[in-house]
Amino acid sequence: MERIGKARGDRLLVLVLILMLGVGLSVLLSASAYYAERLFQDPYYFFKRQLLWVLLGVTALLAAAHVPLDFLRRATPLIVAMALILTILTFVPGIGQPIMGARRWLFLFGQSFEPSELVKFSLVLYLAAIFSKKQDRINDPINSLLPPLLVVSLFVTLIYLQNDFSTAFFILLIALSMFLIAQVRIVYFILLSLLFVPVGGMLLFTKAHRVRRLMAFLNPLADPSGSGYQVIAAQTAFVSGGFWGRGLGRGVKKLGGLPEAHSDFIFAVVGEEAGFLGAVLVLVLFLLLAWRGYSLVVRGRDSYSRYLAFGITSTITLQALLNIAVAIGLVPATGIPLPLFSSGGSSMLVTLMMGGVLINLSRQGQDEGARRGGVLGLDERWGS
Fold first, then answer.
1. Among 26, 174, 234, 266, whose Cα sits 20 to 30 Å from the Cα of 45?
2. Residue 265, burial from CB neighbour count under 10 angstroms (0-12, 13-18, 19+)
């Protein structure tokens, strides 16, 4: 039974992913029906598209759950190159088209794809591979720190040039967390933070819509029919849902009163229709995913497995927490989707692929040395 359990992977992790898919599809159907009927005369339009991406994503999950990790590691340069090419293609007229001021989608054969979602995954793969390879000389600033820093900076710059500040910031956040967990000398980490934080602050104020989002966060009532409208509508949805909610399908804010109800603000629909209890249950699902993912960091058989588990788990859970924080008004609006819930094929496909890698990692044997050394084998080298 122990061998069978290992072969199948972490069953609780698999169960959590299945539950999130089921709940996510149900909420999406409810949140998108009115908007889909009004735009496409088909209330199931977004649901059917999402279901197609779920099928593709589950196929990718199964493949990622069984591919040898050594093969995935060797294929990392190809995956990074593919993500880079697709990101550059968004700037090519006719292939990449701007939507709502951002040029982050590719359109081919009637389908759209957002390369920045693949960038998140590819950078985690790359950083896990390079940090594990150079673990014994991780604090060499030229040979070990400069190459990943240049790669991360390249992708962050390209995504920023797409006018997608939120995703660029999120990718930088994940990258810096992996630098930190790879035991980069704390002095270097502080220097990197001192470099990126002021630059990010300055770039925040280079576009008027970013400033409006920040002002709406600080005081949404200052412009209730403009920049503060989404924030107020989302908070109103949560308040009207109460503890038990109005019931699935019975929400009213999604009927034109809450922009992006089927995508960026889908958690507000959860709050209105499933109430405080339903919102907490969704949050618990993500926390369970985080628990099982970070437990793989502790149980990883080598540094590559541990870094990979940390990067993937952080990407999924931090993205979810950021989206939820936006919906309840704790941070400014970002445009970051809720994984496995928000409408969007690119996010669904890549998230399920990352979930497959987590299942793959859970099938690997434990590294006794890693368990003795702590979460990532942290030791006295941290402050050296």
1. 234
2. buried
- Taking the CA of residue 58 as centre, how many other CA atoms within 13 Å lie in the half-sphere pointing to its CB? 11
Residue type, 62: L
At 41, list the tokens.
């005369």
Confidence (pLDDT) at 16:
96
Position 217: which residue type? F
Q: What is the DSSP letter of 220?
A: G
Alpha-carbon separation of residue 280 from 30, 140, 262, 287, 321 (angstroms): 19, 44, 19, 10, 12
Average pLDDT over residues 23-46: 93
How far apart are alpha carbons 162 and 168 in whole angstroms? 9
The amino acid sitting at 97 is: Q
Which of 250, 286, 287 minimizes the C-alpha distance to 270? 250
- 99 beta partners: 102
| Residue 2 pLDDT | 45
CB 51 within 8 A of CB 25: yes
Q: Are 289 and 13 in contact (CB under 8 A)?
A: yes
pLDDT score at 224: 67
Q: What is the pTM of this model?
A: 0.88
